[in-house]
């Protein structure tokens, strides 16, 4: 309340203040003329409420649906690979930088060759990580091998970084008997116990996209309880963030103070659905604050920025027992999978622009070269070595026997229930009656 009062009244006001009837007063003009004071009556201005103090306001004010400015995007390198002045980043040694770049090239070459193999009818399915090589490799480089990964399906680079061999990738894609999943999963549904990488899941009626998010929170909580120097890390797409599991996982992680990194690859598309048909928020990063989670938006095509952000996030997650949300802005340069033709719903120019102007490989290569750590010769040696290894891996994977048919029914139940035994019997009868329709290389 604001009052204009005389000197006498002012003295009364002082008395009232001393007797705690009013909270404070501020002199606006000299009191011997005609003092004007602001008197704040003792109406409380804040309310103690679970979660902290809440200020009262006399204004009817709705929180805006958006900030005036979008959350800025952290980057270290510009589109041409030049370091921005005053850029903050975690130093990367020559050894790590060269491995990062080499693995980015390997991932891209592996994708190209498997993709072609699928087009030739040698693989049933494939999905590339084209355009997202920096997110894959730089985040893996910033993590420790003890950190437990809960992937979607566009992050095989994390496995590659951890030492999954091209032969192991090929065995899974060809579903042969050396595949750890015994040929029961679609190609690109990799997993490795040894490398702390949960198997990508495609179980229908589960949320393929995000079932791993709440699981990652549980694993992170357990790592915290065991006082491990490790966190859980889950990768997912913008489409995954539109699933209910994403929201449940964020809330759960915040409340349980679980050391988990949520790394969202916002690549603009969930198959043919653009992000504008998925959410009206400023992307995904702003959702962290709603759940009380520290968050950052990063240029996902800048390997140095990804490395630094994930490195810092990991430190905070483990030391401070808190989840962190990272939104990596990127673009899915490839089709969603070999079952998709993305030129039906987006322009070839758009794809080409991202591939050329914002290419994560050429950008990082420029920086590595500017340090004197890479050359044209190193590039061509690497490429011919990877090509040779890939072709050999495919040759071996293709000629390796398939897993026995029994495995379609094993490993779920200790004693298979009646309905599964019936199904196995039916399959075997069908094969007997139509042997020509059954692949000859699958042992019965
Ligand atoms: C719960 C659920 N809904 C739909 C699908 C079908 N589906 C498979 S991948 C995909 C798009 C996912 O997009 P995003 O999460 O953005 O990942 P991106 O493919 O872009 O890397 C959809 C809709 C699914 N697997 N699971
Ligand atoms: Mg997407």
Automatic annotation (TrEMBL):
Ranges in coiled-coil conformation: none
Residues in Dehydrogenase E1 component domain copies: 104-404
Signal sequence interval, chain numbering: none
Record Pfam families: E1_dh
This protein's UniProt keywords: Oxidoreductase
Key word Oxidoreductase present: yes
Keyword hit for Oxidoreductase: yes
Descriptive protein name: Dehydrogenase E1 component domain-containing protein
Organism per entry: Brassica napus
Lineage summary: Eukaryota, Viridiplantae, Streptophyta, Embryophyta, Tracheophyta
